Amino acid sequence: MPNMRTLGEFVVEKQQDFPHATGELSSLFASIRLAAKVVNREINKAGLADITGAVGSENVQGEAQQKLDLYANDKFKAALEARGQVCGIASEEEDEAVYFDRDSNANAKYVVLMDPLDGSSNIDVNVSVGTIFSIYRRISPVGTPPTEEDFLQPGTEQVAAGYVIYGSSTMLVYTTGNGVHGFTYDPSIGVFCLSHESMMIPKDGNIYSVNEGNYIKFPVGVKKYIKYCQENEPEDGRPYTSRYIGSLVADFHRNLLKGGLYLYPSTASYPNGKLRLLYECNPMAFLIEQAGGLASDGNTRIMELKPTELHQRVPFFVGSSNMVEKLEQFLKDFPEQ
Ligand code: AHG
Ligand code: MN
Ligand code: MN
């Protein structure tokens, strides 16, 4: 395999694109890569070992925590602390931001926000799940403990973002603002290999991804958009296709490759939608924009929203640019709830 490039090699190669890069981001990626391999190994044992199911506790958002939610959280947290490039993390599974207090971490420049296991209700039924991460340079001075302000930065300030999809193969997809690159894990050698360089999402797609069980609770503009998809034929006599896995990472990944729109609108039960701005929507928004697509809350660009809370939710529309624009137009034309 003379042209094979590993994730580690590629990150170091691309580091030269950054002025004053010192290798800290590469080292941070090494932490993520390592934790992803450990979580991947564990997920692959689901069904054999006693690792599926709920633990009986809830996270701060009142959602049942699965054993693998907590396992993935611990592994990513430990890997990020160990290399000393990160001064703190925020996670779906932690009520508050976690500040690493070792001396080496106090001098670190970065904070990481993460959804350690996305789509965790799919684990027990052998359907794809993922990990989502978002990396920021801290605002507080290096050498002091991080502050809340470091974690509540708008998505436009992200230094890097990405996800791991534990699917029919395991992939890591990331951006540092110079395109989106995907690496497929080869378990026989334990290495992520470059397989998808400079990924671009088609401007148009024929897939819409939404939990249609919530249809009657959707805003009028979203209902009209879904009807539009059902009544029109984007290409060669076929109507739009509905595809919804229930793991944001998996739905996003498919739409990134094929073109499409993922929707999680506000509903009567979730007036701000369900997905979390800081560790689900912002990283996906950074990736999709880098791949030529768009991410919106229906009105505003996701990455320009100013966060006020760690676990803040936001309506989320992400995917092919023409589809997001069309959806936004429907919401403008039919503003009723
Ligand atoms: P998580 O497992 O991290 O809590 O995320 C689940 C999210 C997302 O992955 C998925 O698209 C969405 O919740 C599914 O929600 P519904 O079951 O309400 O459709
Ligand atoms: Mn999630
Ligand atoms: Mn999760």
TrEMBL record:
Its keywords, alphabetically, are: Carbohydrate metabolism, Cytoplasm, Hydrolase, Magnesium, Metal-binding
Q: Which residues form the Fructose-1-6-bisphosphatase class 1 C-terminal domain?
A: 201-331
Q: What is catalyzed by this enzyme?
A: beta-D-fructose 1,6-bisphosphate + H2O = beta-D-fructose 6-phosphate + phosphate
Q: What is this protein called?
A: Fructose-1,6-bisphosphatase class 1
Annotated cofactor note: Binds 2 magnesium ions per subunit.
Pfam families documented for this protein: FBPase (PF00316), FBPase_C (PF18913)
Describe which pathway this protein belongs to, using the record's wording: Carbohydrate biosynthesis; Calvin cycle
Cofactor(s) named in the record = Mg(2+)
Q: Give compartment(s).
A: Cytoplasm
Q: Where does substrate bind?
A: D118, G119, S120, S121, N211, Y244, Y262, L263, Y264, K274
Q: Where is the Fructose-1-6-bisphosphatase class I N-terminal domain?
A: 6-197
Q: Tell me the residue numbers annotated for binding Mg(2+) 1.
A: E92, D115, L117
Major place of residence? cytoplasm
**What Gene Ontology molecular function terms does this protein carry?**
fructose 1,6-bisphosphate 1-phosphatase activity
List positions binding Mg(2+) 2: D115, D118, E280
**Enzyme Commission code(s) on record:** 3.1.3.11
